[in-house]
C-alpha cells in the first residue's frame, strides 16, 4: 500500500466520517472539510463550504502546506431538500444541485491541477442508488447524483492518460442517524426491497472507497460501483 494524501469533503459525520477513519486506518495522510465539527482522530479538519470557491481555495492551501499535494479526493459532501415536485421550490432544487454537483466540480477542479503535475490521482464521487434508481420526492437529489456519472466518465476521458482515475460509488440505504430515526414499519418496508435484507454500515462504503483509491484499482475508471445490497441492480 502506498500512503497518499487524501481529502474528503463533508468528513465530520456519517459516511464522510467513516471514510476518513478508514483512510487513516490504512495509513494515509487524511484531511476532511467541514462547515462545522471535525473529522476523526488522526485527520486534519479544515473549515470549508463546497459551494464557496474562496473557502475551498483556503482549505486546499492549508491541506497542501501541512500534508502535501492532494493525490486522492473524495467528493462526499451533500444535502437533501426532499419534497414532491409540485411543492419543490426553485431554491430547493438549486441548493441541492449546487452543493452535490457543483460542489463536486469545485473540489475536483482544484484537486486535478496537482494530480496532473504529479501524473497520479484518484477521484471518487459519492453518488447514491437514487441517482439511477429514482425516488419520489427526490427529483433534485436524484438529478444531482446521476450527473456525477457523466462527470466521472468525462474526467476519465480527459485525465485518464495521466494515471488519474475517476469513479462513482453509489451507496444504498446506510445505517445513519437519519435511517435510525425512521419508524420501524418504514425501515422494514425498505429492507423488504433490498435483496440483502439489511442496511449497509458506513464502514462498508468506506472500505470500497479505500480500495478504489489503492494501487490495486489502477485500471478501473469511469465505473459506477454500487454498495446497496442489490437494491439498484440493473440500473
**Would you tell me the overall average pLDDT?**
95
Question: Tally of extended strands?
Answer: 7
Can you tell me the CATH superfamily?
Answer: NAD(P)-binding Rossmann-like Domain
Which geometry do the CA atoms define?
globular
What count of domains describes the coordinates? 1
- The helix content, as a percent range, equals 40-55%
Order of helices and strands: EHEEHEHEHHEHHHE
CATH topology: Rossmann fold
Q: List the uncertain runs.
A: none
Estimate the strand proportion.
15-25%
Q: Number of helix segments? A: 8
Oligomer: single chain
Q: Note the main sheet.
A: 7 strands, parallel
Radius of gyration using CA atoms only: 17 Å
User: What's the CATH class label?
Assistant: Alpha Beta
Task: Give structural notes.
The protein has 235 residues and is of the alpha/beta class. It has one domain (5-174, 201-224): NAD(P)-binding Rossmann-like Domain (Rossmann fold, 3-Layer(aba) Sandwich). It is built from 8 helices and 7 strands; from the N terminus they run E-H-E-E-H-E-H-E-H-H-E-H-H-H-E. Strands 3-2-1-4-5-6-7 form a 7-stranded parallel β-sheet, sandwiched between helices. Strand 1, helix 1 and strand 2 form a beta-alpha-beta unit. Helix 1 packs across helix 8, helix 2 packs parallel to helix 3 and helix 3 runs parallel beside helix 5.
Topology:
Elements: E1 5-8, H1 14-25, E2 29-34, E3 43-47, H2 53-67, E4 72-75, H3 90-118, E5 121-126, H4 130-133, H5 139-159, E6 164-171, H6 177-180, H7 184-192, H8 202-212, E7 224-227
Parallel strand pairs: 1-2, 1-4, 2-3, 4-5, 5-6, 6-7
Helix pairs in contact: 1-8, 2-3, 3-5
Amino acid at each position: 500500500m502506498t500512503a497518499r494524501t487524501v481529502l474528503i469533503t463533508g468528513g465530520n459525520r456519517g459516511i464522510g466520517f467513516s471514510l476518513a477513519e478508514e483512510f487513516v486506518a490504512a495509513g494515509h495522510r487524511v484531511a476532511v472539510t467541514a462547515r462545522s465539527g471535525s473529522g476523526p482522530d488522526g485527520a486534519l479538519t479544515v473549515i470549508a463550504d463546497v459551494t464557496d470557491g474562496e473557502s475551498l481555495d483556503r482549505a486546499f492551501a492549508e491541506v497542501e502546506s501541512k500534508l502535501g499535494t492532494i493525490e486522492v479526493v473524495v467528493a462526499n459532501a451533500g444535502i437533501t431538500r426532499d419534497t414532491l415536485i409540485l411543492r419543490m421550490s426553485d431554491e430547493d432544487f438549486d441548493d441541492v444541485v449546487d452543493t452535490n454537483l457543483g460542489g463536486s466540480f469545485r473540489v475536483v477542479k482544484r484537486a486535478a491541477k496537482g494530480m496532473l503535475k504529479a501524473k497520479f490521482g484518484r477521484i471518487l464521487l459519492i453518488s447514491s442508488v437514487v441517482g439511477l434508481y429514482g425516488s419520489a420526492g427526490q427529483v433534485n437529489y436524484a438529478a444531482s447524483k446521476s450527473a456525477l456519472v457523466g462527470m466521472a466518465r468525462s474526467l476519465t476521458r480527459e485525465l485518464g492518460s495521466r494515471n488519474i482515475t475517476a469513479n462513482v460509488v453509489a451507496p444504498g440505504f446506510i445505517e445513519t442517524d437519519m435511517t435510525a430515526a425512521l419508524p420501524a414499519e418504514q425501515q422494514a418496508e425498505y429492507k423488504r426491497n433490498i435483496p440483502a435484507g439489511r442496511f449497509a454500515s458506513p464502514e462498508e462504503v468506506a472500505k470500497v472507497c479505500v480500495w478504489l483509491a489503492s494501487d490495486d484499482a489502477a485500471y478501473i475508471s469511469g465505473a459506477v460501483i454500487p454498495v446497496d445490497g442489490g437494491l439498484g441492480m440493473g440500473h
